[in-house]
Amino acid sequence: MANYTLSRGDIEGLTYLGNYLWALGSAQDGGCKVQKIDPSNGTNVGSALTLGQWCDSASGLSNDGTYLAVTYSSQGRIITYDTNGNQETESHIQNASGARGIAFRNSQYWLGKNDDMAAYAPGCCGMDEVSGTGQSNL
User: Can you tell me the distance from the alpha carbon of 34 to that of 14, in angstroms, rounded to the nearest whole number?
Assistant: First the structure.
């Protein structure tokens, strides 16, 4: 078991993509920062990437096997980025404002909010909750 000290004190999420660990930092001024880390020794791989112009309530990091996915808790949205920091997609999710955790599996994003968790898939106007997946009182 290894323990590494990160170069940031504002980490909002971690995900493993490819052979690297990625850490999301929620900057107070400017875009969110994501750092690629070698998990074998904890060293940063390159400089931190800036995601977008403003980091407004970033609250979770996941990936779909290709793209990094960030959830923004105050806005009820998920934005995906390539591993160079370029935005790929933006999805709005009804009733997801306040979500604090994100995971991805089989074309569905799972979001945690308060004591609830639900799955969302692409729908007519963004992301729609998948019927029957909600979990309450966790």
Answer: 9
